[in-house]
Amino acid sequence: MRIADEAGMTFLELLLVLFIIGILTVIVLPVSKGWSSEQTEQDGIEAFKSTVQHMQSYSMANRARTWLTFSGGGTIYTVTYSDRADRRAASFPPSVALEPSSTFKEFGFNGNGDMLNTGTLSLRTENGAKQIKFQFQRGRMIIDE
Fold this sequence. Notes:
The protein is α+β, with helices and mostly antiparallel strands.
């Protein structure tokens, strides 16, 4: 009686494994793309909120006015300082922009950190509209998303 040593996989088994991997890839990629897009949007909004908080801190520390304006269809925001010649520009991720109907399109801080104007900023994203409310409470700025 002859015993055959089998090593490896047959061609059919290999095709079956590749087919299963292909099906799983087709299912997982769209789900992960949506999560990635939502995470990128959230990171962009968090970076914007951090910029606003930095503006207020800079105004208080340097007794200088700062203000923020939007350009590029609401995808680029620029911070200007009253005591410096340079400007700091940053942009939202491609899927985030200032809502054209937003009434709060520019804002700033006095040298003592008080906000020049308060209101609600509306942003358009792939995952729906987002609103950021700027208001005061006990002399500090509150950003309520």
